[in-house]
Design brief:
Blueprint: E1 5-9, H1 13-26, E2 31-35, H2 38-47, E3 51-56, H3 67-75, E4 81-85, H4 90-98, E5 103-106, H5 111-122, E6 127-128, H6 140-150, H7 154-164, H8 169-176, H9 180-194, H10 199-209
Parallel strand pairs: 1-2, 1-3, 3-4, 4-5, 5-6
Helix pairs in contact: 1-5, 3-7, 7-9, 7-10, 8-9
Length: 225
């Protein structure tokens, strides 16, 4: 049986060491691959056919908010992803789970708690360490919209992110190397899935839901923490 691989995607070498130590304690048989950017993460997934888990910090260079988590789940639906973040508010945790994460580990977590999440997720479950006494106040409509957004194909997700950045159909077509007719078809599918009528509504919704910082406002999808 081939050795399973666990990928740690974080540009903080100290926390990578913390995670690697926790993995060593609970899955000493696993091969641990450390990466620090989106490019090296994609390369690691391509080079290892037996990835059993990805531990992902959305602040790695090249990542843009929650869009990276959505891309990973769309392209590799069978690989569980545990989000690790310095932002551990209950809203962020719930959004991560709605977008398909199998777990959440705040960077303030203790080693024993990290080990518990690893055991649960590697066993096929879902586990999230939430902020102490945290109570998420997330609109139920937003949660449903997040689930619908997470059901989009990778191609539609890429178009939606471009829409959120305010780009025209012509620009999106050139950027993604597809035709404008294909862009229009994807937008029609996006609107149908999200249950809305206008591309502007889809852009605003994506801007809001894909933010990862405390103040999920503004036009940038860049991670704030």
């Amino acid at each position: 049986m081939p050795q399973s691989t666990i990928v740690i995607a974080d540009d903080d070498p100290h926390f990578r060491a913390v995670l690697k130590d926790a993995i060593g304690r609970h899955r000493p048989d696993a091969q641990v691959v450390e990466v620090s950017s989106l490019d090296t993460l994609q390369r690691a997934i391509a080079e290892h056919a037996n990835v059993a888990l990805i531990l992902l910090d959305l602040r790695i260079p090249g990542a843009r908010g929650f869009s990276l988590l959505l891309y990973l789940k769309a392209e590799h639906p069978t690989i569980p992803v545990i989000l690790v973040s310095v932002s551990d508010g209950p809203g962020i945790v719930q959004r991560a789970l709605d977008f398909g994460a199998s777990g959440f580990i705040p960077k303030s977590a203790r080693a024993t708690a990290i080990g518990g999440v690893l055991r649960t997720v590697l066993g096929g479950g879902v586990a999230a360490l939430r902020a102490p006494n945290g109570h998420a106040r997330i609109d139920l409509e937003d949660r449903e919209a997040a689930r619908r957004l997470a059901s989009l194909s990778i191609k539609k997700l890429k178009v939606l992110v471009q829409l959120a950045d305010g780009h025209s159909n012509k620009y999106i077509a050139g950027h993604l190397a597809i035709t404008e007719a294909t862009v229009k078809a994807h937008i029609t599918g996006i609107l149908r899935t999200l249950g809305i009528e206008r591309r502007t509504q889809a852009a605003i919704l994506a801007q809001r839901l894909l933010q990862t910082g405390k103040h999920a406002e503004g036009n940038s999808l860049d991670d704030e923490g």
